[in-house]
Amino acid sequence: MTRPVIVWLRRDLRLADQAAFAAAAKAGPVVPVYVLDDETPKHRKMGGASRWWLHHSLASLAADLEKLGSRLILRRGVAADVIADLAKQIGAAAVHVLRHYEPWWRNAERALKERLPEGCALECHHGNYLMPPGSVTTGSGQPYKIYTPFWRALAQHMPPPEPVSAPEKLAAPESWPESDTLGDWALLPTRPDWAKGFAEEWMPGEKGAAERLEAFLSRAPHYEECRNLPSVEGTSRLSPHLHFGEISPATIWHATMEAGGSVETFLKELVWRDYAQNVILQYPDYAKANARDGFDKFPWRDPADKDVAADIRAWQQGRTGYPLVDAGMRQLWATGWMHNRVRMVTASFLIKHLLVDWREGEKWFWDTLVDADYGSNATNWQWTSGTGVDSNMFVRIMAPLTQSEKFDAAAYIRQWVPELAGLSDKAIHDPEAAGKYVKGYPKKLIGHKEARERALAAHAKIKS
Ligand SMILES: Cc1cc2nc3c(=O)[nH]c(=O)nc-3n(C[C@H](O)[C@H](O)[C@H](O)COP(=O)(O)OP(=O)(O)OC[C@H]3O[C@@H](n4cnc5c(N)ncnc54)[C@H](O)[C@@H]3O)c2cc1C
Question: Which family is this sequence assigned to (predicted)?
Answer without folding.
Answer: Belongs to the DNA photolyase family.
